[in-house]
Specification:
The chain contains 3 helices and no strands. The chain is mostly helical. Helix 2 crosses helix 3.
Length: 76
Amino acid sequence: MATGDWRLFCQALRYQVPEWIRGQNVFPSIDPLALQMYFIDNRLRDHHALNDAKANRHAFNRSLVQQRPSLSRKSR
């Protein structure tokens, strides 16, 4: 999760983020071809928050996830 996104998320929860929630940038784990194909196959526009979230979920490749430090509540 980008730092700006994490800050917005924390603000939305009024900084009452449960301990079990950790942010992590998953952009490196997104398959770019699968991402574009999702938009084409579903005839959706990109840069719309809900469409982008669905496309990212579709294109997320768990095997590309590397162990990285997560964004914790302390990194607000």
